[in-house]
Amino acid sequence: MKKDFLWGGALSNVQAEGGYLEDGKGLNVYDTLVVTPEPGIAPMFCDTAVATDHYHHWKEDIDLMAEMGFKAYRFSIVWSRIHPMGDDAEANQAGLDYYEAMIDYLKEKGIEPVVSLVHFDMPDNLLRKYNGFMNKQFIDFYARHVERVATRMKGKVKYWITYNEINLAPYQSDLVAGAYLPEGMTRSEMFVHMSVNTAIAHAKAVEAIKRVDPEAKVGGMVGHAPFYPLTCKSEDIIAADFKNKMHNYLPYDIMCHGQLPAYFLNFAKNRNVEFVFTEEEQNVVRESAQKLDYLAFSYYRSNVQASFDGINDPVALEDAVLFDSRNMKNPNYGMNEWGWQIDEEGLRYSLIDFYHRYEKPLFIVENGIAFDEKLVDGKVYDDNRIDYYRRHISSLKTACEHDGVDLMGYLAWSPIDFLSSHKEIRKRYGFVYVNRDFHDLLDLKRYPKKSFYWYKKAIASNGEDLDDIEY
Ligand code: BG6
Question: Is any ligand 1 atom within 6 A of the Cβ of residue 336?
């Protein structure tokens, strides 16, 4: 791997911080999210008031990242700490101070900060009052927030990510985009409006950051899971192709080409959806494409897509495919307890596909696997996680060394345990175990798992030594 390869990890701060009303922070959409458990998982509650208390343990957590040898660390500046209500006239200085201290400390430890600007953290007030990214006015609150954050961190943050998993906004709209489906609107109509609005928001963020700090590097980000056709029947291939375009490529296509692609315009036309995309907005989107530095994505798994028997109307069929909840499985791969299939070659495939499609540097900013783990005598033997990472790192090395992909770095998900997007503590992703469970906060002490030492060795060898270790 190249010498300056950015090995490290990533975290979403709302999922780890807690301290949820401290120092002027307002409630955000993750705090107020009503949890819908994943299929097969019983309803459960986990509070965001404490989460894994990263708000108070951040120095200790960064020390652990430094011990692992991180070159880069991606985290999110929680929007509702900076603008507690979202439409505030002024930024909350205590929030800016908090993250600036964190950035300074990372620099002191030789770790490059990679900062995400929206990661499930938009002020809840913006959802209730404006319906989030379904409302164009909201885009200005976001752009103003980005500008203020970029201004304070100018010269300190080199790598920015405008919007975490922007492509998931139309699907998990409350958490990802602070919006509910407006009454009387179909999901497809919402898909069109949301895709346009989030594309404008991303473009405005690129513009703001580059204006404030021309030296900064800005990336767009998607949550990526390639859809393979379930069979080689042409209807499944057409379904998978459609799903990949709408789900995986659309935001990158807009970000890189600076305009709405023909397949998207056709989708809107077939449904008679009229949307507003002013000339000024079109210009911002066009110009932002020239300024974008890299493409970031998360990768956990691949998916499969099949067509639907018995739906003959092409619009109805596309809608069924777009919002398919059948959760079909690929017979070739195993999975974790949450049904996430393990497909390391899918990562290589994604890298090849994205790089040859867009010819921009790529950045893997999330990759990892969750298990329900127990602490035994202060230890967690997570050999299954090591195996997952070994396979995925080997795969990305092939993509770089054989397939010629320009990859900037690899950020594992995640340095420490935190609450899942569904607020589950038992779905653990960390290299470091945090001692708490569902019902009891215990002592919140940090314990490095076996994977902690394994990843440390992998980083020290620049990805060459992936062998097992003694623990
Ligand atoms: C990504 C998000 O979608 O997946 C993270 O950016 C999230 O915030 C991660 O935690 C894993 O998903 P989950 O649902 O297991 O937390």
Answer: no
Contacting residues for 308 by C-beta, under 8 A, at least 6 apart: 239, 317, 320, 321
Contacts of 237 (CB under 8 A, 6+ apart): 229
Quick one: 309 exposed, middle or buried, by C-beta within 10 A (0-12, 13-18, 19+)? Answer: exposed
Among 189, 207, 366, 373, the one annotated catalytic: 366
Q: How far apart are CA 200 and CA 47, in angstroms?
A: 33
In angstroms, the CA 336 to CA 179 distance is: 30
| Helical segments of 164-297, H only | 173-177, 187-212, 234-243, 250-257, 262-270, 279-291
> E strands within 247-314?
294-299, 303-305
Nearest to 80 by CA among 135, 25, 42: 25
Point out the ligand 1 atom lying closest to the alpha carbon of residue 340: 15
Catalytic residue among 17, 147, 165, 318: 165
Backbone angles phi, psi at 248, to 5 degrees: -105, -40
- Contact call for residues 27 and 414 (beta carbons, < 8 A): no
Mean pLDDT of 116-145: 96
Give CA–CA dist 120/99, Å, rounded: 17
* DSSP-derived pairing of the beta strands 6-10 and 72-76: parallel
φ and ψ at 240, to 5 degrees?
-70, -40
- Proportion of the chain above pLDDT 70, given as a percent: 98
DSSP symbols for 357-379 = HH-S-EEEEE----B----BTTB
- Look at the pTM and tell me if it is higher than 0.90: yes
Mean pLDDT of 217-246: 98
pLDDT at 289 over 70: yes
Answer for the pair 28, 124: CB distance below 8 angstroms, yes or no. yes
Mean pLDDT of the chain: 96
- Residue 228's DSSP bridge partners are 304
Phi first, then psi, for residue 334 (nearest 5°) are -80, 180
Residue nearest to atom 4 of ligand 1 (CA): 421
In this predicted structure, what is the pLDDT of residue 122?
A: 96
Please report the pLDDT score of residue 380 as a whole number.
98
List the residue whose alpha carbon is closest to atom 7 of ligand 1. Answer: 421
Secondary structure tally for the chain: helices H, strands E: 17, 12
* Amino acid of residue 425: I
**SS3 assignment, position 299:** strand
Q: In sequence order, what are the residues at sequence separation of 6 or more whose Cβ sits closer than 8 angstroms to the Cβ of residue 90?
A: none
Report the candidate in 289, 277, 142, 281 with the shortest Cα–Cα distance to residue 205.
142
Is residue 18 within 8 A of residue 421, CB to CB? The reply is no
